[in-house]
Amino acid sequence: MADPLAAGPDAVQFRFRDDEPVDHPAVTVDSFLNQSNASAVRIEPGDDARELVPHLEHIRLVEINFPSFTDGRGYSSARILREAGYTGELRAVGDVLVDQLGHMRRCGFDSFEPDHQMNEDDAKAALRTWPEVYQAAADTRAPIWKLRHKEGSHG
Amino acid sequence: MYRYDKYDQAMVDARVAEFRDQARRRLEGKMTEDQFKPLRLQNGLYLQLHAYMLRVAVPYGTLNAQQMHMLADIADKYDRGYGHFTTRQNIQYNWIKLEDTADILADLAKVEMHAIQTSGNCIRNISSDQYAGAAADELIDPRPYAELLRQWSSFHPEFLALPRKFKICVIASETDRAAMKLHDIGIRIVKNDAGEIGAAFYVGGGMGRTPMIAPLIREFVPLDQLITYAEACLRVYNRYGRRDNKFKARIKILVHELGKEEYARQVEEEFAHLLTQDIEPPLAELERIKEYFADPAFEAGASDEIDLSDPDFALWVKNNCHAHKQPGYITATISLKPVGGIPGDASAAQMHLMAELGKEYSFDEMRVTHAQNIVLPHVKKADLYTLWQKLDEAGLGAANLDSIEDIIACPGLDYCSLANARSIPVAQKISERFAGNGKTETLGELKLKISGCINACGHHHAGHIGILGVDKKGLENYQLLLGGCEGEDTSLGKITGPGFTEDGIVDAVDKAADVYLAQRQEGERFLDTYRRIGMDPFKEAIYG
Lengths: 155, 544
Ligand code: SF4
Known about the structure:
The complex is a heterodimer. By secondary structure, chain A is of the alpha/beta class. Chain A contains five helices and six strands, in the order ββαββαβαβαα.
């Protein structure tokens, strides 16, 4: 894993990937669907992430915008893309706050471009909050029910 | 009942640490109140008129003596010696300091309790039948399914910023004692023609300013797809529920606007997709949970005799006890509705006593009901008289379950910043009026519910008699509703006409009661008479 505190484009505060970041700006879903040579797309809360599914092999960066941290549609958009097999960069952009980081990671986000830089100690602590997780999501963490019923064990 | 394993304990402990850090950052000014608010709400901490209120989860209403003792200790240590049991089968404390909250959560974690997701725009504490595991008429104990859903919904990363709050209820009997169809998702555990157990999903019910009864969305979800189907229901809501208007953001509006067929179709599509994603816990997990809900060690051949020679006791047995599935046992409800009292309030001393009695006479188990009472689910009939005497001595022996004195009331203007009018004094006056004029017992089952504003936390739409506090040119005013019902034949109450003052509403309720007493036919409850004769005779008596 790359050091997430290291570079990416300037505004990206955390990036959990080793590949080269895309160097051109993201286009809207509509313009992407009209001229599909862009490899970076930006999803707004009202967009249907599933419209991108047929084109995932052309996409290297999806930005999901959170105009307000209280609007949780972007969490579903993220999981939908990961469930469809998208492996490119998934970046949370906008009103992204420390206390959402861990949940966003679970939904498949792997880079973060918050409007306001986070305190890095708080961010590191937030990412360590949960010893385990209760449900399956878009990350690789094994849910507690899986740990409880590991093959061969009945306890 | 369910007990935490090391994983559950670690999750709750992590939550306490997380909240302690969030509160620190807030108190140090590193976070704005707007940023902090959703975080504290998801830990049950509300800002009310005079102080913070902390709402503690009692999952599906079940708790043991150790937990009840802790609730009492918290009332003494951090509040004013009282707690308030709520219509969500939870308990609230009304005088809490932000600085103390992390310590309270840590105390709760010591007895396997928490305040996780008891507020905020997330999946709330799961509710259930208060007689679960005891009722003679149930198919199966619904609580293991509720516990499975509790774990799935706790810290669910996708559903922590929903358009609005989300309430789930699970029952497993024909009689609906939990207002299941007035939840965002109501689940009834059913048996299909092949004899298999599964879940019927009702989606899009709710109270609030636009009350709706949830339509049936799917008749049968197999148990090994339960979580996946629930996840599909939530995802469609998270993506398409309205966010432009707080008052149209509940799932009931989405289901209503799309139509139940279209909503169901979208859920099916999402469900088919999610079935490929391997998100369902194995049935072995359900079996693991079920073991915790095995029957207690009932005494075989216990006697069904109850000596009813004491008339006060006989009345309490008639009104407050419910048939148990086990011969020789009965389910007893402790009324938290003493005449002139605050509905649902209990002092620390009363909580300690209920804990002791629950331990001694009910296999260490109690339930909080959505009617704001406490149930001792498994009482041996031979112990019932002794139990009642102890309750009666402590002022907990009111024999008024489901009567006009068993009022559900929200906190209203005494505490709540959204209120238009006070609820508690109206409840107190009504119970005093009917206890005084002696009509309570004659009236029989009559469910009266009061909300201090249109948000309907007191479920006024679902009362046989409902009272809604409104603001009339800056004065507290009360509307009267008749004909609501939360049971199997769920219906919503209708407004009688112009509103009343505080004393006027008490008179109006009295007149409505008199219409019933004059018009009732053999065996009819208030609700049945109202349904038969309609609104007009009541209107005439009240406004005539
Ligand atoms: S119904 Fe209104 S007044 Fe009563 S608790 Fe709810 S929001 Fe407050």
